[in-house]
Design goal:
57% of the residues lie in helices and 16% in strands. The chain has 482 residues and is of the alpha+beta class. The strands form 3 sheets. The chain has a 5-stranded antiparallel sheet with strand order 2-1-5-4-3, with helices on both faces. Strands 7-9-10-12-11 form a 5-stranded mixed sheet. The chain has a two-stranded antiparallel sheet with strand order 6-8. The longest helix is centred in the middle third of the chain and has 64 residues.
């Protein structure tokens, strides 16, 4: 109220200033004075409002009567024509003030609608940028509070029954109202506390509700925001279902790959065992030396079969992330030599190079052995039979490095960043060389679990995969000073 009184006094002061200028400092005729007064009324109306403009209009009309219409110096009008002019000026100034106020309100309304549209647009973009780092609902309600500058906001998801809160303030005790709004399309408003609860609908189906505290917004903006929230929630639900389907597909693909790999690898020892037992059964009178040799072959192949089963099961655990690391001091040079010796002597050439034995590292020997064996197996698989595969053990930048180099056709540059992805296999070899696309992914998981790095460098005719593992740590396991 005091603010309006002050603006009214300023309007009267403006009329007084125009009167002093027009009739004392720079004398002008009545027509010019009318235009100046009218301009003042328009300025007051567009700046403050109709009440101030009306007061200025009446004051300007009285000043015009006093100083311009005969008899001068009196608030009376002698000539009837001047009465008409007097009334016309008063009416014109009032109408002009009203129109100016209406134009100002229209302009402010347009600005507010533009701001509302900008907020809705910003909110729609913010929804698209939501990631999977935290629950979707939590990020969504935080975006609502930030974009619309709310003191507090609560989102209720009907299908999960979860509540998500955001904003600098909080208000409790609205859970039942939010559930009721989601169940019955109800809306609650408290203008005194600037609170509002409304339903989130996807089409005609309620999928949640939202409570807002802060500046009340127009219904169109509220509905637009609610529609965007509904679209965002449905999008998140669709993404979740897609992820579940993809996980199920990959799980099925993993089972198929493991069965295929097991069937392929198990055939060799099973064939040898079957051949030995068949020979023993078909020729019972064999010499003891022959019987002993056949039994030894069957025993060795049975051990190999058991090792393959253990390895396949361990690979499945690592691939699913359900494994534990049991670190102990590991001599990398000896471990690599053990892995190389485990490969069958089928004419493939494997060379181990070690300029100086690297220090022992803290690692899980079982998992590290699996990783080195998998990379070496890949190198043998993708290189020509007569080519040499080199295993180099050393140190690099404070880490122990195991580099395995083959002389196959190489990996194209655009595929080098993808070879550690689950199930990825190069289209150029997918149909030529059997495999599941899991081996290097499992190696990557094992190396990362040891805080190491896995790197690849390739060119036509040569590919090197390096396992970089943190040096040291073995002394701490043994209780020795570092």
């Amino acid at each position: 109220m005091s603010q309006r009184i002050g603006r009214t006094l300023l309007s009267l002061a403006g009329v007084a200033a125009v009167t002093m200028t027009a009739y004392r400092l720079i004398p002008v005729n009545a027509t010019t004075a009318e235009f100046v007064y009218l301009l003042l009324v328009l300025v007051v109306a567009s700046t403050w409002g109709f009440v101030e403009a009306a007061v200025a209009s009446v004051a300007a009309t009285l000043a015009l009567n006093f100083f311009s219409l005969p008899p001068l110096g009196a608030f009376t009008i002698r000539d009837p024509q001047n009465v008409v002019a007097f009334i016309s000026f008063l009416t014109t100034s009032l109408i002009a003030g009203r129109l100016s106020v209406a134009a100002r309100r229209t302009a402010l309304h347009a600005i507010e609608r533009q701001q509302d549209l900008e907020r809705l647009y910003t909110f729609s973009r913010a929804i698209l940028l939501i990631d999977n780092s935290t629950p979707f609902g939590k990020q969504l309600i935080q975006k609502v509070a930030d974009v619309f500058q709310l003191n507090a906001a609560v989102l209720f998801e009907r299908h999960t029954g979860a509540f998500y809160r955001a904003g600098p303030q909080d208000f409790e005790g609205l859970d039942e109202q939010l559930r009721d709004a989601a169940a019955h399309n109800a809306t609650y408003a408290d203008r005194e506390k600037q609170r509002l609860i409304t339903t989130i609908r996807l089409g005609s189906e309620p999928i949640g509700s939202i409570a807002l505290q802060g500046a009340l917004m127009p219904d169109a903006v509220l509905q637009g925001m609610a529609n965007l929230i509904a679209i965002g929630m449905e999008r998140a639900k669709a993404q979740e279902m897609a992820q579940q389907m993809e996980a199920a597909r990959q799980s099925e693909q993993l089972r198929t790959a493991l069965v295929d790999a097991m069937a392929h690898e198990f055939k060799t020892p099973l064939t040898s065992i079957k051949a030995a037992t068949t020979a023993l059964l078909d020729i019972p009178g064999q010499p003891p030396e022959s019987r002993t040799e056949l039994l030894r072959v069957a025993d060795e192949e049975a051990d190999r079969l058991r090792e393959l089963i253990d390895r396949s099961l361990e690979m499945a655990r690592v691939e699913s992330g359900q494994f534990e690391i049991h670190k102990e001091p590991v001599a990398v040079r000896a471990l690599v030599a053990e892995v190389v010796a485990s490969f069958p002597a089928d004419g493939r050439r494997i060379e181990v190079l070690c300029d100086a034995p690297p220090p022992a590292i803290a690692a899980d020997p079982r998992l590290l052995r699996m990783a080195v064996k998998q990379v070496l197996d890949n190198a043998l698989k993708y290189s020509p039979p007569e080519s040499l595969v080199t295993v180099r053990v050393g140190t690099s930048g404070g880490a122990v490095a195991i580099g395995i180099t083959d002389h196959g056709k190489g990996i194209p540059p655009h595929e080098q960043s993808r070879i550690f992805e689950r199930f990825y296999r190069s289209p150029s070899v997918k149909r030529l060389i059997p495999g599941s696309g899991l081996g290097l992914s499992i190696v990557h998981t094992i190396v990362e679990a040891h805080d190491g790095e896995l790197a690849v460098s390739s060119r036509p005719g040569e590919t090197t995969i390096r396992l970089l593992l943190p040096a040291g740590g073995a002394a701490a396991i043994l209780g020795e000073p570092q």
